[in-house]
Amino acid sequence: MRIANLANFPMESKKPEIDAPASKMLGKLQGKADEQAYDYDVVSIGETMLRFSPPIPLRLEQANVMELHIGGSESNTLVGLSRLGAKTCWISRLPDHSLGQQVARLIAMHGVETSHVVWTSEDRLGVYFYEPACFPRSGEVIYDRKDSAFTKFTYQQIPCHPLESCRWFHATGISLALNPTVRTTMEFARDYARRHGACVSFDFNYRSKLWSIDQARVGCLPWVESSDLVFFAKRDAIAFLELSADTSDQDVVEALAKLRGGKCSVVTLGQQSHR
Fold first, then answer.
1. Would the pLDDT of 31 be above 70?
2. Close Cβ partners of 193 (under 8 Å, ≥ 6 residues apart)
3. DSSP secondary-structure letter at 113?
4. SS3 content of the chain, % helix, strand, coil (to 5)
5. C-alpha 20: how far from chain center
6. What is the pLDDT of residue 124?
7. How many CB atoms lie within 10 A of CB 41?
8. At what angle do helices 249-259 and 234-241 cross, to 10 degrees?
């Protein structure tokens, strides 16, 4: 079995060497000048699902076998940070069976703390089918995540200790898109972590199959305005800010900075670079 999205990270226990810029950024993340002790550098809440993909170059309709992976934006972020030496914790809600346990185990093997996962015997594990892009056709995603364990994650079920002892709380627009229950849970976690001294980072991470851009604009605006750090793909920032498609990189950055009162914002430009 292969692990989707996590496969780019080394599997051996030795941490990869960190270059000077990355080391400097990690130092800021870990708050080395801050004498207050924290259990975690970054805590995040999100759903990680099973992902089924046909062997390349087959399409979903052509495949009679599927490769099994796991995929989740928040857990991917934590894996990357863990590989850089940060102390990370993933909070989620999973069904207490072999597949749910495998999801937690595959994330934990990269050094991410998963002991605060909420387990349930009542609900299912979300899955999705992903057909990788193969030029000239684009990739295809089919979700099957309705009524998954995570979509029923209420704020009353959140394990609060990690949120009381973290430097950063990280969230994404994917979680906000799922339903009002999860949105309330994410808002509670954000506010609770902030009351205990955490900074908040937010990745807009728009998914058109989960909600429309108008719904995303309404649902994410408070997060975009209030978070200490936000991430946008340029195409998503243009849609969110209702700019023209040919808006320059600089103008997108300036529009986002104006909306956020000059707080730190990251706009990714695909293979070009980031700002």
1. no
2. 43, 163, 164, 166, 169, 200
3. B
4. 35, 25, 40
5. 25
6. 97
7. 21
8. 60
